Amino acid sequence: MQIGDKAPDLLGKDQDGKEIRLSDYPGKKIALYFYPKDNTSGCTAEACSLRDGIGALSAQGYQIIGVSKDSAKSHKGFIEKHSLPFPLIADTETSLQQAFGVWVEKSMYGRKYMGTERTTFIINESGTIERIFRGKEVKTKDHADQILSDK
Q: If DSSP states are collapsed to H, E and C, what string results for 75-134?
């Protein structure tokens, strides 16, 4: 998915097994953020930044939706532990991550493996991708401010 592409309406199922669709949020801009794993340092910092900025983000018309390969059960625990006020999609089969091009080959200590590239897609009210924050460009501790400052 690139800037200018139309995002799919059906995104997946959240931590409660509820289907999440873009059309569930009429008139909202969606900050769809993909992250590698619940309860890891960078992912927790990013989620908490978005949680802490939810008032300002909501005031600007944003709905936050998180996505990782973790299970719904893992997401529930992550949400409860950090009081996250937004849904997390359990993309256990990585189908949404593959559709958005964020399921990529990574490398750590010379070992190659498949994983999630930390990426946030800003999707406008008509379902079109207007901005992408990818990889190291994502400032996990200040991600809410980063989204808000990019108009």
A: HHHHHHHHCCCCCEEECCCCHHHHHHCCEEEEEECCEEEEEECCEEEEECCCCEEEEEEE
Give the list of residues 6+ apart from residue 151 with CB closer than 8 angstroms, or none: none
Please tell me the distance from the alpha carbon of residue 10 to that of residue 7, in angstroms, as a whole number.
9
Rounded distance between C-alpha atoms, residue 75 and residue 71, angstroms: 6
Q: Which of 7, 32, 43, 65 is catalytic?
A: 43
Average pLDDT estimate for 15-42 = 96
Whole-number percent of the chain with pLDDT over 70: 99
Longest Cα–Cα distance in the chain: 45
Q: Is the dihedral of CA 116, 91, 101, 32 positive or negative?
A: negative
Nearest one of 122, 85, 71 to 100, comparing CA atoms: 122
Distance between CA atoms of residues 30 and 75, nearest Å: 19
Residue 150, pLDDT score: 62
The yes-or-no answer on residue 43 being catalytic is yes
